[in-house]
Amino acid sequence: MIFNKDTAIKTAELLLQINAIKLNSKNPFTWASGWKSPIYCDNRVILSFPAIRNFIRDEFSKNIEKQFGKPDVIAGVATGAIGAGVLVAQELGLPFVYVRPEPKKHGRMNQVEGFLQKGQNVVVVEDLISTGKSSLLAVEALRNEGANVKGMAAIFTYGFPVAEENFKEAKVDLFTLSDYENLLDLAVTKEYITENEQDLLKDWRKNPAEWSVEI
User: Fold this and answer.
1) Rounded CA gap, 141 and 149, in Å?
2) What is the DSSP letter of 2?
3) Helix axis angle, 5-17 relative to 180-189, nearest 10°?
4) Helices 50-68 and 82-92: crossing angle, nearest 10°?
């Protein structure tokens, strides 16, 4: 997991400002997985704020080139990262494709939408990393099409150890603009949460599947 400290703090601050990330340890959110969580992240909100989406675009663009070299194609993971991926591709003057969670059931039955040639270097843009499984399914789909995946760039990661293991096993380098630890430090400094709430949020990440507000 690679990121610049200043960028991580700034990104976290912007996400909190526009409620793309919400923190609530007293009334936790329920994820699709059934996990109870004191944090909810919806980075699609970024697209509604021009100055912030431009910041994300610029940070992605310069850091993608720095970390992976300029690729041939930018790929976005559907649906959350399509918007951000298009912005990055436009900024870098590159073709764009996106990857569905699974192949279409009709027509050409594509999973990768857009024009992609075998052997092309691809960087994948993602909005959020939790366990990494859905993100890495996109990488697998691109590799099945003959792409050379140089790495993945995401806006935010929860930093779960299982995600690090999954990316390592898949041999995919991951770069993120911000992460959970920098978010919590900023949230305390800016008084979005108290230090006690920070402790609860740290406990959640240790074992999110079993966490409850009574901890």
Assistant:
1) 10
2) B
3) 60
4) 70
- Most distant pair of Cα atoms in the chain: their distance: 54
Sign of CA dihedral 62, 86, 135, 143: negative
Residues with Cβ within 8 Å of 37's Cβ and at least 6 positions away in sequence, in order, are: 28, 29, 30, 31, 204, 208, 211
Over its length of 215 residues, how does the chain's per-residue pLDDT go in tens digits? 666 899 999 999 999 999 999 999 888 898 877 888 999 999 999 999 999 999 999 999 999 999 999 999 999 999 999 999 999 999 999 999 999 988 876 767 789 999 999 999 999 999 999 999 999 999 999 999 999 999 999 999 999 999 999 999 999 999 999 999 999 999 999 999 999 999 999 999 988 888 876 54
Closest CA to 176 of 19, 37, 43, 38: 43
Question: Can you say whether the dihedral through the CA atoms of 159, 137, 211, 196 is positive or negative?
Answer: positive
